[in-house]
Each structure stands twice: as C-alpha cells, then as structure tokens.
Amino acid sequence: xxxxxxxxxxxWPLLLPVALAFFxxxxxxxxxxxxxxxxxxxxxxxxxxTLMASLPGWWTGMVTALLIxxxxxxxxxxxxxxxLATRSRSSVGEAILESLKRAPVAVAMIVLVGLLLFVLLIxxxxxxxxxxxxxxxxxxxxxxxxxxTVLIVPLLLPIVLRERLGLIGTLREGRHLYSGSxxxxxxxxxxxxxxxxxxxxxxxxxxxxxxLLAGRSLGQPELGDALExxxxxxxxxxxxxxxxxLVASFYRQxxxxx
Length: 258
Hints:
Layout: H1 2-35, H2 45-54, H3 57-86, H4 92-130, H5 134-163, H6 167-178, H7 182-217, H8 221-255
Helix pairs in contact: 1-3, 1-8, 3-4, 3-5, 3-8, 4-5, 5-6, 5-8, 7-8
C-alpha cells in the first residue's frame, strides 16, 4: 500500500482528470437526462412498472443507449487508470489508446462472467427452492452474486489489459494469479468500497443538502439539483478511481511488479 500512496501523491494531477472524464462526466449526463423525466424515485415494483409505462419509448431507448455508453466509458477509464499504474513511463494518451483497443475484450469478458454467475445463481436458487429455502435464500444468493461480479470483473481488467489473452485464457490466468490471496484481496476491496460509500453518503447528506437548500433559497431549485449532481459525480469519480487503483496495486503485488 505504500507504493499506492506514493503513486497517488505523485500522479494525482493526471489521475483525477481521467477519473472525472470517464466516471464523473458520463454519470452526470445520465443523471441530468433522467432528472428531466423522473422526479420521484420509485419505491416498489408497482411504482417502477407505472413509471416505465408512462415514459415514451424513444426516451427509454435513449437512456438505455446512454447507460451502455456509460458502462463502456467506465471500462475504458478503469483500464486507463490501471495502465497508468502498472506500466512505467506511460502517458495518459497512450494508456487511453491501449484501453480502447482492449475494451471489446473487456466488455465481452464482463458479459461472460455475468452469464456464468447468472447460470450459477439460477442453479443455486433452484436447489435452495427444492430444499425449502424460499425467497430469503434467493435474495441472499442474488446479493452474493452481485458482490462476486463486482469483485471478479475489476480483478480481471489488469489481465485483459496487460496479458492480451482471450476470454477463457483471462479467466484461467486470473484463477492462477489470485489463488491463495482471494480472501485478503476481496476483504481489502470490500472494506475500501464500504468506507467510500460511507464517505459519499456523508458528503451527500451534508454538502448536498446545503447546495439544495441554497438553490431553493435563491429561487433556483433546478440549479441546486444540477450542482448536487455535479458534486455526486465528482465524489463518485474519486471513489471509483481509488477503487481501480487499489485493484492495480493488488495486481502489481501478485504479478511481481513491485
């Protein structure tokens, strides 16, 4: 972790713009677009169905396209940060270009991992239902499936970027590289994610509430909403940037780059 701290202290003027461009800006655009039509967050399944039925088809298609672009941008941004952290003397432009070249493999890998985990979840929930586990077991299994996806995919991104393997080769290399340290790495990533979530919630409750209050006091609630969205995008960018740099640090340790 000492290397990671020194790297961030030295390179943050390069790392922060990358995180803002690939994590923050797409999130901000999607948030502002959705705010034009969705003023109240649905609380139940029925509320979601009512909302989806009230939205025009073209708008739903546009938001879906934006979400796909946001996902691809996040993948490219993650690999760009990982590339800067794992390749010596690599410029931002070179790191972005290399990430764009490997993005199709990364997206295909995400789809493959998602499908594999989905199949495993279906099998596990079927077994739980036959054993009388009920809805509680399904919820628990789904939760751990999401956690597994969030952990597995980022840990494979450095391999996609550096090793230039196919999909199956990437999964095989990931199993070999991280064997024996899965618990430590998973625990570190989970603790970082939880700590970041707590900080983001605290920032949203404190600074976000002040921004909204200021906007309403000035008679410009839309301005307050927009500024709060900017604040959330910036803080989320910093959180995701730190997460992927931590992933790069774990990869450096396991690959013998330190």
